[in-house]
C-alpha cells in the first residue's frame, strides 16, 4: 500500500508541474502518470500503449514528444519518462563506445599455450572459450549460475592479460556491495593458487582488493555524484565488475562514463538472479547467445582452434561480447540444490516440488510458527554461539555463514530477528533491555567512507576486552584484509540486526544452509515471491535449502516470472546502426 501511495504522490506532483507548463497537455497525460510511476517502482522503464492512447498523447505537446527533448517520451507504442529514456540511450552509447575499440595485439602462441595449460579437466571447456573470447573483446560479459567458475575464468583471464603486455595493467575489482566485493577478492585469491603463473604476475594480482562501486567512483552524499566521470576518468586498463545483475541503469551509466576508452570492461553475473532494486535490467538485456562474424571466428580460431561457436554473416549487436557458462562444478545432477535451481529457471513447478522428495536431506520444508523456527534456528547456530562464548572472533566469523534466514520483505526479516532475540533472551544470551549483546550479527545499511564500512557489510558485536563500571564493553567487528576491524558502537553508521535479511541484501553471499520465509501476507506473497527471488535464495545455499512455507506458495513463485520491460537492447541496436553509418 505504501508503494502505491508513493507512486500516487509522485504522479500528482508531476501532474501539478505539467499544469504550469501546459494545462491542456497535463489533462491528457494525467491518466498515464500513475501507470508510469508504478511501472518505474517495479523496475520497468516504460509502459506499453494502445494505438488510440498513442494518438491521444501526440496531442499533449510540449509535454510529450518523440525527439528526446520533452518530459515524456513516446517511442512507437512505448511511453517513457524523458529522464529514463535518456538514461537508456546514454548507457547504450557508453556500452558501444567501450565495445567498439581496438584491444592490444594478442601473442597468439603464448595465449593459446596458456589456454591449453590452464584450462584442463571436466567442465573447463566453456571457461576456456570465455577467456579466449574475452582476449579479443574490450567489453565482455561472462554469465553463469553458481559453481560455473566465473571467478576462476576471470582469474586466468587476468593472468593472460598481464602476460600479454610489457607493463602490468592497472586493474580494479568492484561489486555493488561490500559483501560481494570481499567475496570476489577471496575467490580470486583462492583461484590464483590453482594454476601456475609467473611470480611477477601472481604478485600483481595478489594485491588486488575488491571494492564497492560507490567507493570506486567516490560517490558522495548528499547528491551522490561521482568524482570520476567523463572529464575525470578512472586511471585503469581493466575493470572487473562482479554481481552485475544488481546494477541498475543509472549506476551502470555512472560506472561506464568513468571508464576511459581503451580500458577493458569485464562484467560477471547471473541473469536469473534478482534484478537491481532500481529501474532497468542491464545484465539481462546484455545476455544473449554467442554468435560470431566470420572475421571474429577466424581470429578466435588462432587462439582456440575448433571453438565450435556459431558463425553468421549478420549478427545481433554485441553477440560476440557475451558468453554463458553452463557447467556447474558445485551443483551437478546429483545435487538437490542444483536440480531445484534448474527447475525454477525452467519454470517447472511440479519438478521443483518433486526435488524436495528426491533430496530430503538437502531440501527441506518447514511449516512452523515463527517461535518454533527461531528455536530450530538457534539449535543450528550452536557452533556460532560457542565461538561467541569463547570470544574466538575468527571462529565467530567462520560460523556466521553456517545458516541464514532470508525473506522477500524487510518487515518479515525484522519480525524474525525480534523472534530470534526473544529466543536468545530465553537462552540467557541477550538482555531484555540492552540494545546490544555479544554475538549480535549486524548489517550496515549506509556507506561511511571515513570509517571504511559500506552498505551490505556484515559485522558482529563482541566484547572488546575493556570494562566500564564493572560491565564488559562491546564493540563491532568487521572482516578486513585477512583480519578484522574494530569500531566503537557509538560510531556505527546506520545498521540493522541481520540474523535474517532480505534476499536482495544476501546477493553476493554464500551460506552453508539457507531458509526462505515467504511473506506472511498471502497477497504480498503472490506479488513479491517470484521466480527470480526464489532462484536467488536457493543459490545462496551451498549444502541445504529450507522453504518455510507451503507447496502452493512455492509453485506460485515459480510460475510468477514477469520480465522487466526495458528498451536498452533497442537503444544498443540503434547506436550500433548509427556508428556503422557514421
Task: Compose a concise summary of this entry.
This protein has 582 residues and is an alpha/beta fold. It has 24 helices and 24 strands.
Summarize the structure in words.
With 582 residues, the protein is of the alpha/beta class. Helices cover 45% and strands 18% of the residues. It is built from 24 helices and 24 strands. A 6-stranded parallel β-sheet has the order 7-6-10-11-5-14. Strands 15-24-23-16-22 form a 5-stranded parallel β-sheet. Helix 4 crosses helix 11 (249-257), helix 17 runs antiparallel to helix 18 (393-399) and helix 22 (531-538) crosses helix 23. The protein starts with a helix and ends with a helix.
Stretches with pLDDT under 50, minimum 5 residues: none
Taking all Cα atoms into account, the compactness measure Rg is 25 Å
End-to-end Cα distance: 49 Å
**Largest pleated sheet:** 6 strands, parallel
Structural class, please?
Answer: alpha/beta
Work out the strand percent: 15-25%
The coarse silhouette is globular
Strand order of the largest sheet: 7-6-10-11-5-14
Assembly state (oligomeric)? single chain
Percentage of residues in helical conformation:
40-55%
Mean pLDDT score, rounded? 92
What's the tally of helices? 24
Q: What is the tally of beta strands? A: 24
Amino acid at each position: 500500500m505504501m508503494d502505491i501511495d508513493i507512486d500516487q504522490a509522485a504522479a500528482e506532483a508531476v501532474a501539478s508541474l505539467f499544469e504550469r507548463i501546459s494545462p491542456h497537455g497535463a489533462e491528457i497525460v494525467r491518466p498515464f502518470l500513475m501507470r508510469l510511476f508504478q511501472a518505474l517502482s517495479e523496475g520497468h522503464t516504460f509502459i506499453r500503449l494502445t494505438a488510440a492512447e498513442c494518438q491521444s498523447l501526440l496531442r499533449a505537446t510540449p509535454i510529450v514528444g518523440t525527439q528526446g527533448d520533452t518530459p515524456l517520451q513516446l517511442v512507437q507504442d512505448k511511453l517513457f519518462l524523458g529522464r529514463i529514456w535518456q538514461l537508456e540511450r546514454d548507457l547504450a552509447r557508453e556500452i558501444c563506445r567501450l565495445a567498439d575499440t581496438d584491444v592490444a595485439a594478442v601473442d597468439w602462441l603464448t595465449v593459446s599455450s596458456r589456454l591449453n595449460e590452464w584450462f584442463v579437466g571436466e567442465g573447463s571447456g566453456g571457461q576456456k572459450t570465455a577467456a579466449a573470447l574475452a582476449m579479443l573483446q574490450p567489453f565482455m560479459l561472462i554469465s553463469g549460475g553458481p559453481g560455473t567458475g566465473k571467478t576462476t575464468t576471470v582469474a586466468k583471464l587476468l593472468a593472460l592479460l598481464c602476460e600479454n603486455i610489457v607493463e602490468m595493467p592497472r586493474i580494479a575489482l568492484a561489486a555493488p556491495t561490500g559483501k560481494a566485493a570481499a567475496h570476489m577478492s577471496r575467490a580470486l585469491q583462492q583461484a590464483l593458487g590453482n594454476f601456475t603463473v609467473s611470480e611477477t604476475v601472481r604478485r600483481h594480482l595478489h594485491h588486488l582488493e575488491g571494492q564497492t562501486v560507490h567507493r570506486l567512483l567516490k560517490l558522495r552524499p548528499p547528491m551522490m555524484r561521482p568524482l570520476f566521470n567523463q572529464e575525470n576518468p578512472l586511471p585503469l586498463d581493466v575493470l572487473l565488475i562482479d554481481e552485475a545483475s544488481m546494477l541498475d541503469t543509472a549506476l551502470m551509466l555512472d560506472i561506464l562514463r568513468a571508464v576511459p576508452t581503451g580500458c577493458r570492461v569485464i562484467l560477471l553475473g547471473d541473469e536469473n538472479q534478482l534484478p537491481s532494486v532500481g529501474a532497468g535490467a542491464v545484465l539481462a538485456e546484455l545476455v544473449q547467445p554467442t554468435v560470431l562474424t566470420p572475421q571474429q571466428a577466424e581470429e578466435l580460431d588462432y587462439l582456440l582452434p575448433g571453438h565450435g561457436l556459431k558463425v553468421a554473416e549478420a549478427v545481433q549487436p554485441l553477440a560476440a561480447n557475451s558468453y554463458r557458462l553452463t557447467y556447474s562444478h558445485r551443483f551437478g545432477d546429483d545435487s538437490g540444490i542444483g536440480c531445484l535451481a534448474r527447475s525454477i529457471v525452467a519454470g517447472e513447478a511440479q519438478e521443483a516440488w518433486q526435488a524436495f522428495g528426491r533430496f530430503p536431506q538437502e531440501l527441506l520444508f518447514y511449516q512452523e510458527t515463527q517461535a518454533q523456527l527461531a528455536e530450530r534456528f538457534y539449535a543450528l547456530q550452536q557452533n556460532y554461539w560457542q565461538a561467541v562464548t569463547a570470544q574466538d572472533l575468527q571462529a565467530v566469523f567462520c560460523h556466521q555463514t553456517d545458516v541464514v534466514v532470508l525473506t522477500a520483505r524487510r518487515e518479515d526479516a525484522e519480525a524474525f530477528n525480534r523472534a530470534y532475540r526473544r529466543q536468545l533472551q530465553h537462552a540467557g544470551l541477550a538482555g531484555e533491555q540492552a540494545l546490544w549483546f555479544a554475538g549480535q550479527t549486524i548489517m550496515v545499511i549506509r556507506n561511511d567512507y571515513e570509517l571504511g564500512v559500506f552498505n551490505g557489510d556484515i559485522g558482529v558485536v563482541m566484547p572488546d576486552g575493556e570494562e566500564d563500571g564493572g560491565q564488559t564493553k562491546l564493540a563491532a567487528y568487521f572482516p578486513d584484509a585477512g583480519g578484522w576491524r574494530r569500531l566503537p558502537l557509538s560510531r556505527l553508521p546506520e545498521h540493522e540486526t541481520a540474523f535474517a535479511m532480505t534476499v536482495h541484501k544476501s546477493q553476493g553471499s554464500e551460506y552453508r544452509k539457507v531458509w526462505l520465509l515467504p511473506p506472511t501476507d498471502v497477497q504480498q506473497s503472490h506479488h513479491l515471491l517470484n521466480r527470480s527471488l526464489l532462484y536467488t535464495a536457493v543459490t545462496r545455499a551451498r549444502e541445504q535449502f529450507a522453504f518455510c512455507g507451503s507447496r502452493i506458495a512455492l509453485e506460485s513463485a515459480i510460475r510468477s516470472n514477469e520480465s522487466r520491460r526495458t528498451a536498452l537492447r533497442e537503444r544498443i541496436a540503434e547506436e550500433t546502426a548509427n556508428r556503422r553509418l557514421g
